[in-house]
Amino acid sequence: MEFRRVGTSGLRISEIVFGNWLTLDGQIDRDAQVACIRAALDAGITTFDTADVYSLGAAEEVLGRALDGVRRSSVEIATKVCLPVGDGPNDRGLSRKHVTESCHASLRRLGTDYVDLYQAHRFDDETPLEETMRAFADLVRQGKVLYVGVSEWTAEQIERGHALAAEMGVPLISNQPQYSMLWRVIEAEVVPVSERLGLGQIVFSPVAQGVLTGKYLPGGAAPEGSRATDQRGSRFVGRYMSDAVLEAVQRLRPLAEDAGLTMAQFAVAWTLRNPAVSGAIIGASRPEQVAENAAAAGVRLSDETMKRVDDVLGDLVERDPAKTADLFNIMPAWRR
């Protein structure tokens, strides 16, 4: 495993980050979830990403259980706050009340005194930004949070948030956006602003919900047990299931083979080729998938290979910066 700094901060994380969004969000049983997390530790992964909204806290509980007995200072735990975790009027958003209460609840579920990275899961335009940043700063000063960041914020939102956070002495260090060969909306605006301000990108969905593994074939039925056959998962992977995309993905296979990589490793290594990326978040439903994806650490694809990827995918790549925070264009408004 190799490690990178998060932006210009002193925090180092593993290039491969284990995340428990969909794959640990009720799709596999808890024992299998724990086995995957322990496989991540065996693979040298030290950084784990979760959120209060994943299975309404159950994912945090599983992560805490799996890390029980692991030396706390040897791992980095990141969690997030903003999306709804209940039906009450203050069970969502980035108000001082919700940020503070959610942090305390996350710490209890994770079984830890602090989280290394606490991120605003979305932007909340109904709460004064100063209120949010002051709540984050207070948690840092209380020792409950070491670093703060955001997830799926636009360039303009990052700039505003960073200015306020810096004034309070707790600058934002990270952004967690969706990023893959097929989804590059952060490149035009978010990445340049983040680099100027010192934020690193901890990217999710590097294999485009499994599509870039090549397991979905054009004109064919989705493999049994895959995300595309799951009622929840299919909502997210559907964007990429056109024959045009699936045919192009199959044309990437020779490039992966030339690099000596599986398709999944190739997709993850592609994201890590971007110097703005601090880490790539992987998910897994089986321990062997963790080991496979973790092997992408340290791989450096050539300029020629990167160009060939662009030639294969062409106009199928989504680059519109206006789609930042547009989670597959199907996530309902989080305030509802």
Structure notes:
α4 (129-141) links the parallel β6 (115-120) and β7. It contains twelve helices and ten strands. The longest helix has 15 residues, at 96-110. It has a domain at 13-205 and 271-297: NADP-dependent oxidoreductase domain (TIM Barrel, Alpha-Beta Barrel). With 336 residues, it is an alpha/beta fold.
Describe the structure using short key phrases.
alpha/beta, globular, 36% helix, 336 residues, eight-stranded parallel β-barrel
Q: Which helices and strands occur, and which strands form pairs?
A:
Blueprint: E1 3-5, E2 12-14, E3 16-19, H1 30-42, E4 47-49, H2 58-67, E5 76-81, H3 96-110, E6 115-120, H4 129-141, E7 145-150, H5 155-167, E8 172-175, H6 190-197, E9 200-203, H7 233-237, H8 243-251, H9 253-258, H10 263-272, E10 277-282, H11 287-294, H12 303-313
Parallel strand pairs: 3-4, 3-10, 4-5, 5-6, 6-7, 7-8, 8-9, 9-10
Antiparallel strand pairs: 1-2
Helix pairs in contact: 1-2, 1-11, 2-3, 3-4, 4-5, 5-6
What is the radius of gyration?
19 Å
Structure classification: alpha/beta
Discrete helix count: 12
Mean pLDDT: 90
Describe, in short, the structure shown.
The chain has 336 residues and is of the alpha/beta class. It has twelve helices and ten strands. It has helices at 30-42, 58-67, 96-110, 129-141, 155-167, 190-197, 233-237, 243-251, 253-258, 263-272, 287-294, 303-313, and strands spanning 3-5, 12-14, 16-19, 47-49, 76-81, 115-120, 145-150, 172-175, 200-203, 277-282.
